Amino acid sequence: MTQPIGWQIATITGIKQETPKVKTFTLELPDWKRHRPGQHYDLRLTASDGYQAQRSYSIASEPEREGEIDLSIELVDDGEISSYMHEVVAPGDRIEVRGPIGGYFVWEAGMADPLLLIAGGSGIVPLMAMIRHRTAVNSTVPVRLLYSSRSPEDVIYFEELMQRRAAEKELEIFYTFTRSQPQGWTGYSRRIDLPMLNEVAGPFIKANPWIFVCGPTSMVELVANNLLQAGLPAGRIKTERFGPTGSSS
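Above: the chain's sequence. Below: its structure in token form.
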């Protein structure tokens, strides 16, 4: 019988501002366990009167980093935990966590077929763990990432993604900016649709790729349906979505 995952007290050792609304928190874990890329941790806050708030956040770091994890958290309206993390905590603070959790939305380099990643907003976080894991184990699996964001300023991990794209031959990255684009932009400037997916996924369709889609619920459902229309098998499409509270499903 599988033992339940217990809560532990993590120490925040670093905070990095990724975008105006996203920060990455490095957590040192006394009971660290190696995660699988795509898994998440639960965070729990307990008030002095006993009231508790709990949310799930995807792990951004690769499992090859031992003793700690990164969680990239978006500040959302009325988000109890995201507001606390963005506005209150500082390095050295401690927080209650539980994980790693999840077994469906995971990818490891041993899954050797091409990898198609589709992200909307902070849905890039678990996909980044996959990209970082791929690099850490020197995998040459071909990867195509399609990342939808409101503007270039809202792209999480922008500099790192650019560096990885330049350094890793088999990693291709495509952006679509739905609200504002940089001057001279010639790439996509609309929500993800079937023609866009056909263009990005086209070279992979006959290669039986693994496909991971993460983002807001409406985007994920639309993308998954369009992928099926494009002829990609349902058994190869893994989805994860988040709602307005910022909690994962």
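The CA atoms of residues 139 and 193 lie 30 Å apart.
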